[in-house]
């Protein structure tokens, strides 16, 4: 059996948690059957997604810090910043 890295295990668990939150949110939207409540739930999901993205990327970078260059790390953080900025831009 292969030993899994701790950072990878945390990333997998966070993604499973994120997916579970998404499925639960969809079920709640269906249960409430109300557009206003669905909009509110969807707004809360908009907060969860970027947080999971940042945390999983940070965990991956911590795990890979000794294997990738500083330039690539900076590029990755710039890419994440641009994604988050584009979500906020009107």
Automatic annotation (TrEMBL):
InterPro entries tied to this protein: Uncharacterised_YqhV
Pfam family, one: DUF2619
Residues annotated as transmembrane: 7-32, 38-62, 69-87
Keywords annotated in UniProt: Membrane, Transmembrane, Transmembrane helix
Name of the protein this chain belongs to: DUF2619 domain-containing protein
Organism: Sporosarcina ureilytica
